[in-house]
Amino acid sequence: MSVVVRSTRGWVLDARSLIDEGYSRCLRLRDNQKSHVKCRFKRQCFQILKSHYSMSASAAVDEGSTDVLQKTDKASKKRKRKHSELNQGEIDSQAFHEKIRSVVLEGTKSLVDSARSLGHLNGVTDAVKEPLPSQECSLAALCEMAKELPLVDEDEQEECVQLLVAEDGCTSHVDLFSRVTENGEDWATVVTLMGEEYVIPPHTAFLLSDFTRMRPLVHYGRRFDLIVMDPPWENKSVKRSRRYSSLPSSQLKRLPIPMLASPNCLVVTWVTNRPSHLRFVRDELYPHWGVEVVAEWLWVKFVFPLDSHHKKPYEVLVLGRCRSTADNATSSSGTSEAPVEDQRLIVSVPSALHSQKPSLSEVLKPHVGAEAKCLELFARSLQPGWTSWGNEVLQFQHTSYFTLTPADDGAEVPQGDTADKPTATAALSSPGLSSPPRRCPTTVD
Question: What is the per-residue DSSP string for 364-406?
Fold first, then answer.
């Protein structure tokens, strides 16, 4: 069960189950051979090794205690600088934290208590002793190298789409950098791309490129009812760790959102806890695109203390609607605009992998409809029924992040039957593609 709790406060998600839903049926192509495998995201990536949510949370909140979601085993280290020496950014962050603290505190208590009554989030899980997969990723470097290749001519734009697997089962034809790649099948596929094995979910499309090579996505000819983005925001932590290249906020205005969004498209942006970034999205970025802010949600990371001086246990999502067309227009999926409630919480155990966010497909479905066309920008993974773009779009699709085991000998690849098709059902019931993505006229099915 991927959505553990759903209430007026928000949701408790099982992030790993959300991933696994797309891989209930999987076909592996290797050395001209096909085999059926079961794919599950590695358990050690979502372990609760230490819980900061007090078991006496209910009583603590009722009595007005501020210790809920604090560390219960060790006092946090205080900063050496005095409060008077905080810079303006830190003062702004502290003010924002005080503003939303009660919402996070009371909402998380309610949601976690409900989850625990159902047998979830009941303390530290049994540890998996296997190490985490290596997070080294060379995809961004490959995108840089691909810039040396000539751009696709305008006359060739009708060939902007390619099938992941050719009719003969070959993937050597795939050009990941200048064409949108589609897996229109009802099952996930494990394929070799650029010498590495990746797990590609069903009914998905993706483009591996950076800002300079987004044209194939624009020429894809699709308008999206939901656009989710997780920009590589500039911050000191990223600079120190050098995990990935950051992007100046002003550069985000170059994203062709008006060319990708359908009328009333819901735009959702992940924002770090830096107040200047939040103000930029509200006051500059969204108005630049003709997007009106309609709500702000919070993702609460269950295992971190609420009042940590080092890192807050939440991130903000800014939700907005495109207003460039008539207010009563409908989306391309034929669904009317649904109101979005403010200050909702999404509670989940965070991934141990850097910058891996939980899927928003289930929580956003009521606001975009089950037949909506969905796009993720700056993606590091793929989702069934979605189109994804980014210079590391396949990072968490590498087989090193999955446990692959042989399926039953009697397993069969679905051939159009509608009974017992969990993968196809997941794709159709999420805000993704309701059918295999459209192909350009010259693409052969």
Answer: HHHHH-TT--EEEES-SS--TTEEEEETTTTGGGBGGGEEEEE
Cβ atoms 346, 300 nearer than 8 A: yes
User: How far, in Å, CA of 22 to CA of 440, rounded?
Assistant: 26
The CB-side HSE value for 431 (13 A sphere, CA atoms) comes to: 27
Tens digits of residue pLDDT in 290-325: 999 999 999 999 877 787 777 788 999 999 999 865
CA separation for the pair 306, 369 (Å, rounded): 34
3-state secondary structure of 300: strand
Tokens linked to 445: 């099915």
Q: What's this model's pTM, rounded to 2 decimal places?
A: 0.82
Find all residues with CB under 8 Å of 298, minimum gap 6, and list them: 100, 103, 104, 314, 315, 316, 317, 343, 344, 345, 346
Q: Quick count: other Cβ atoms within 10 Å of Cβ 283? A: 11
Contact between 168 and 401 under an 8 Å Cβ cutoff? The reply is no
Please give the single-letter amino acid code of residue 184. G
**pLDDT tens digits, 157-211:** 557 889 998 877 777 778 898 999 999 999 999 999 988 899 999 999 999 998 8
User: What is the amino acid identity at position 300?
Assistant: V
Residues 6+ apart with CB under 8 A from 91: none
